[in-house]
Request: fold
Amino acid sequence: MELTDVERAIETVINQFHCYAVKGQKEYLTPNEMQELVVQKLPHLGKVRIECMGDPDEAKLEFGEYWDMMGDAAKGCRRK
Amino acid sequence: MELTDVERAIETVINQFHCYAVKGQKEYLTPNEMQELVVQKLPHLGKVRIECMGDPDEAKLEFGEYWDMMGDAAKGCRRK
Reply:
């Protein structure tokens, strides 16, 4: 099955979630894991608001919220 | 500036919006433009719910909503 460029792009964003969501066994990211992902994978996308994720030990970022944060980063870099 | 693979992926998803948002001069997609994008660029991602976009002539899909719909498609293909 030959994916289009857009499908491969979406797949890449999904794979990062799975790759970093270790503690949550691919179901959620912890704020620390999200921070690591942002620093390592989104160095040029500027400020992704991690603070609003609450308690670093408790907060769990599920795929939907992760995708929303990627959307924020995307909106940020659209204006550039 | 060398983008990471994830940044290039996000850029690809953004560029599709700009590429198809002709009538809205890159500010919004019409349901017909979104339909075209889905058919041409997301053939394998299965059903992206276009119907909920309302009146095909009036409805305007801004970037945030477009990104959310991509998220729905992503969630759909995560379960596969």
